[in-house]
C-alpha cells in the first residue's frame, strides 16, 4: 500500500472517528484487545467491535488474531506511525479528567525485588513522605513487561531492553557482577584458583537464584571465555536469599555488586576474582508511550532517572 493509503482510506469514510483511532493505538501498544480494554476502561467486546469497524472503514486488516493477543500487520504499523504522535499530543493538551478528584492516583512501579528494595524504594522515600502513593510489584522482567503493555503498571525497571516499538526504555543504572564467597572458602581456594583457573570452583557448591544459572553463566562466558558446567547446589528465587546463604558459608555465587557492598566492606564476603573487565548489565526504566500522564508518575520517573546512575 502506498504511504498514506491507510489514512486516506479512513478519511474517505463518512467521518473520522478519533475514538476508533484511540482504541486502535491502545490495541497496537498493548498487543491485545483485553489489554486495550483495561487501558481505556472499556469492555473487550466494545474494543473488538471498534476494531472491526475501523478495519471495515479502511478496507484492510489491521491485526492478526493470535492464540494470545494480536500481532499488527504492516498496515497497522503504518497507521500507528502516522497517528501516534498527534493522538498523544491531543491527550496531553486535553489534560486530566476534570471529574477526577484532586488527589493523584497511586503510581504502579514494578521490577526485580532486590533492586527495588535495595535501591529504588530508598531513593523514592522522599516522594512518599511528600504524599506520593506507590504500589510496588516484583517479578521477572518478561512477565512484568507484558503486564506493562496491558496497563497494569505505570513504570517497570527491566533487566533487559524491551523489544519492539510498543514501549519506551531509558537506561537507568549499570550493575556490575562479582564472584564471591565467604572468607573460609576464599582461603581454601586462593592458591587453587590462581593455578587451575575457574575449574577449581567445580568442587565448591554453587548458590544461585535459578536453575539455569543466568548470572553465573554470563560471568563465566564474559570473564573466563568458557561455559559454566557445574550445576547449582542451592537455588533461591531471590538474590537476597542467595547472599544470605553464601555469607553463611554455603558456597560461592555471582552477585550484583550493589547488593553485597556492605558484606564486601566488612569482610563477610570476599571477591574470588577481580577481572579488568567485569560483566556489566544495564537496567532500564520502561513506560508505555502515550500513557495517561499522572503527574506523580512523572515525579517518580524523573527521580529514578536522576538517582539511578549512582546505584
Provide a concise account of the structure shown.
This protein has 311 residues and is α/β, with parallel strands linked by helices. The chain folds into three domains: 5-94, Arc Repressor Mutant, subunit A (Orthogonal Bundle), CATH 1.10.10.10; 107-174 and 282-310, Periplasmic binding protein-like II (D-Maltodextrin-Binding Protein, domain 2); 176-280, D-Maltodextrin-Binding Protein, domain 2, CATH 3.40.190.10.
What does this protein structure show overall?
The protein folds into three domains: 5-94, Orthogonal Bundle (Arc Repressor Mutant, subunit A), CATH 1.10.10.10; 107-174 and 282-310, 3-Layer(aba) Sandwich (D-Maltodextrin-Binding Protein, domain 2), CATH 3.40.190; 176-280, Periplasmic binding protein-like II (D-Maltodextrin-Binding Protein, domain 2), CATH 3.40.190.10. Helix 6 links the parallel strand 3 (107-111) and strand 4 (134-138). Helix content is 46%, strand content 17%. With 311 residues, the chain is α/β, with parallel strands linked by helices. The longest helix is centred in the first third of the chain and has 21 residues, at 74-94. The radius of gyration is 24 Å and the shape is elongated. It starts with a helix and ends with a helix. It has helices spanning 5-11, 18-30, 33-40, 44-58, 74-94, 113-129, 141-149, 183-196, 214-224, 239-247, 261-266, 295-307; strands at residues 63-65, 70-72, 107-111, 134-138, 155-158, 168-181, 207-208, 234-235, 252-256, 270-271, 280-287. The chain has twelve helices and eleven strands. Strands 3, 4, 5, 6, 9, 10 and 11 form a seven-stranded mixed beta sheet that branches. It has a two-stranded antiparallel ribbon with strand order 1-2.
